[in-house]
Amino acid sequence: MSDIKLIEVPKWGLSMDEGTVTEWLIDEGTSFSKGDLICEIETSKITNELEAPFDGALRRIVAKPGATLPVGAVLAVSADAAVSDAEIEEFLTGLGTDHVSASEPERSPGGQLIPEEPCVTSTRSTPAAQESTRTPGTTTVPDSLRGQTKGDVFATPHSRRLAGELSIDLGRVTGTGREGRISVADVHDAIRSAGGTVAEAPSPTRSGVPGRSSEDDGGVDATPVARRLAKSLGINLHDCRATGSRGRVCEADVREAERTFRLLPDPVAASTGAADAPQHAAPEFETIPFNSMRKAIGQRLQESKRNAPHFRLTVDLEIDNLLALRKEINATVPSVKLSVNDFVVKACAAALRKVPDVNVQFDEAAQSVLRFSAADISVAVALPSGLITPIVHGAESKSLAEISHEVHTLVTKAKTGKLTPEEFQGGTFTISNLGMFGVREFDAIINPPQGAILAVGAGQQRPVVVDGRVEARTVLTVTLSCDHRVIDGALGATFLQELRRLVESPALMLV
User: Fold this and answer.
1) pLDDT tens across 488-507, in order?
2) Beta carbons within 8 Å of 68's beta carbon, 6+ residues apart
């Protein structure tokens, strides 16, 4: 047993509680060295590749793709070739049921992996699905089948459980599954062949809705993805055909059940004579469950809106001088391509140095304010799966070119899911820029535990009165959202005054 080692879900950052295995990069039986990439794990913020923590050989994958596990849970087992499969199984059993994944790959009696079949939506129920509901108390078992199962019998977990309930020796049952594996249907067939009887499954009903089940579906064999999807859609797994590999309910089965129930007629309307009324087809829609990133965003921002008393200050910034300086730098320095957002990041960092009481975080647990000397600017980046805020650390001490390069690198890493926790956790101030979408102005929700966030709109040509004359100027509207527990109105206004001074006289950012 000393040669067996566990590969566990790592903790990438303080906010990580769980991770979802998205892909294994090596197969069972493959040897690896410390630092090799072995699997890909998705968290609420990033998708990262797990490096092997030691040298070894991958003997057992416990968590298959789609499995969501807490930090510290077992992903796989590494062991030398001298360690048998039975020893690995005994080791995992000794860890407790929480460490053994329900989606563990099937094995033949000789220990060979049985490949998983693709999930296909079918119109025919499998035997496992037809026999999923049982009432063992009314089943008659002939004496010829009774006894305790001895030795290593190749059978499914459900058939083992049923045999234990009915005191059936599985050694007397013929398996018809792949490589002779015994299923629940094989146990029922053996009972009937020996002259016994099998109880009929009751027709499931739910709260007066025909065709729906209300019983506990915890014992239904389903993939982890299908189980999570069914829970989010309110679908009982007993109502799903099991067309996945090994008779399991898969994601396509849950979606098919959801579509079927959506198209069922309203039983209340039918009972009140509404069947005579014109029938209108229900509008088509797609139900999209929350991914882990959307859940984290929702929880954090809901907490921010609930706990932080927001107030907002809006100012217009004239950026014609900034645009002229940007054009000149980009034209004369070929390796540098500055954006307006790069200037805003630099200006905010410099303004935070002048007004340090805005460069704060609020420690709610200790009811105290953390004031920082360095301006770590979080820049909001939109992703297909949600939003992430990579950080430009110490932006006040960096040049515009350095900020531009770092922002570009962080955005690229964010969109490819390659950010490290240190690159997106923390920050003392956030900038959210929607100007590239033509948004004139908007309000942003504070990114806790920070004290403020700046919402940046689009620069637009607007009429401005200058010395009694109306002139066209390029105006940028920004809105500062502040947490009133730590930042008062006058303090926020002072910060915006300094920000305006820097943006409208951009040469100040070069010295």
Assistant:
1) 999 999 999 999 999 999 99
2) 18, 19, 20, 21, 224, 228, 292
| Structure-token match 């079918």, residue found | 122
Q: How many CB atoms lie within 10 A of CB 332?
A: 8
Write out pLDDT tens, residues 18-48. Answer: 888 888 898 888 899 988 888 888 776 677 7
C-alpha span between 7 and 24 (Å, rounded) = 13
Q: 449: cis peptide before it, omega within 30°? A: yes
| Exposure of 155 in the CB half-sphere (CA atoms within 13 A) | 27
CA distances from 425 to 45, 147, 378, 428, 446 (A): 10, 59, 9, 10, 15
**CB atoms < 10 A from the CB of 413, how many?**
18
Beta pairing, strands 452-456 & 429-433: parallel
Distance (Å, whole) CA 258 – CA 237: 11
Between 369 and 141, residue with greater pLDDT = 369
Q: CB within 8 A of 496, min separation 6: which ones? A: 313, 315, 478, 480
Which residues neighbour 378 within 8 Å (Cβ) at sequence distance 6 or greater? 389, 390, 391, 424, 427, 429, 430, 431, 447, 450
Residues 6 or more apart in contact with residue 27 via CB below 8 angstroms: 58
| Annotated catalytic residue 188 | no
- One DSSP character per residue, 85-128 reads HHHHHHHHHHH-GGGS-TTPPPB-TTSPBPPPPPP---SS--HH
Least confident segment among 194-203, 417-426, 468-477: 194-203
CA nearest to 391, candidates 435, 436, 345 = 345
Structure tokens at 198: 């099998």
293, two tokens: 């990133």
Helix and strand counts by DSSP (H, E) for the chain: 12, 19
The pTM of this model reads 0.55
Q: Which of 99, 158, 393, 484 is catalytic?
A: 484
